[in-house]
Amino acid sequence: KILGKDLEKTLAGLPLLVAHREDEIPVLRDELVKELKQTLSCIKLEEKGVYVQASTLGSLEALLEFLRTSKVPYAGINIGPVHRKDVMKASAMLEHDPQYAVILAFDVKVERESQEMADSLGVRIFSAEIIYHLFDAFTKYREDYKKSKQEEFKHIAVFPAKLRVLPQFIFNSRDPIVMGVSVEAGILKQGTPLCVPSKGFVEIGVVTSIEMNHKAVDTAKKGQEICVKIEPIPGESPKMYGRHFEATDIIVSKITRASIDALKNWFRDEMQKSDWQLIMELKKTFEII
């Protein structure tokens, strides 16, 4: 520790240089600035990630290590109070990935005009003096953000599924189609649009309910035999089992480029490796680039 006047901007973690003559001061100052920039530039940043601000080099490194082990990417770093220029840098994420338009301010002051600027731009600043408090606040924010995005994209995200008709369980052949199917691969969810590639990609409707052992369920997975209700797509004429498709036809969920992107961005946790393999297979079937 050092004691003296005008030490407000002293940075813990940097070397201490002694000037023996007056003219050495600017040279040593430049050397320290260069040393700090070099130290910061050695820290590997991601293209997409949060902006991290800390009071000292040591606390910055501690926070970055904590973020690394928690798999939180960081795209920008700085030391000292949060200034307007830091908010501007963090706001770049609004274009790339808005969930990371965030400043994690660890044990530093947030200037009032910086906070006002962040509020107007839509940048979130989380400030705390304890790493865990900072991380908990950010984790909660990220979970809430993900839930809101899942809600927003749930009608766009179509999970991959491949179904085989169980011909002995055809309960209604048209409007709605009610029949037994076996899930050959993937995940079948309520709201999934279905089509039959072998019959000119005819869209037979949307799954409105799934029953397993006479109980309603939201999801069915590979290997399960279920009863599904398929209602016509609004505005289209109802399709009929026996006319538009047969028991020998494989039924698949109708995926699109937008639905794949929605799965990648917001529903990755619900997908297994085999589900992504089915996505690759269906991409070829639907000729999605």
Describe the structure in your own words.
- Residues 160-251 form the Elongation factor Tu-type domain.
- One of its GO terms (molecular function) is GTP binding.
- There is one protein chain.
- With 289 residues, the chain is α+β, with helices and mostly antiparallel strands.
- It folds into two domains: 43-153, Rossmann fold (3-Layer(aba) Sandwich), CATH 3.40.50.10050; 161-286, Elongation Factor Tu (Ef-tu), domain 3 (Beta Barrel).
- It has helices spanning 24-41, 57-69, 84-90, 93-96, 112-121, 131-153, 257-266, 273-286, and strands at 50-54, 74-79, 102-106, 124-128, 161-173, 177-189, 193-196, 202-212, 215-217, 219-221, 225-231, 250-253.
- The strands form two sheets. Strands 5-6-11-8-7-12 form a six-stranded antiparallel β-barrel. A four-stranded parallel sheet has the order 2-1-3-4, with helices on both faces.
- Strand 8 (202-212) and strand 9 (215-217) form a beta hairpin.
- Helix 3 packs parallel to helix 5.
- The radius of gyration is 28 Å and the shape is rod-shaped.
- The model has no long low-confidence stretch (mean pLDDT 92).
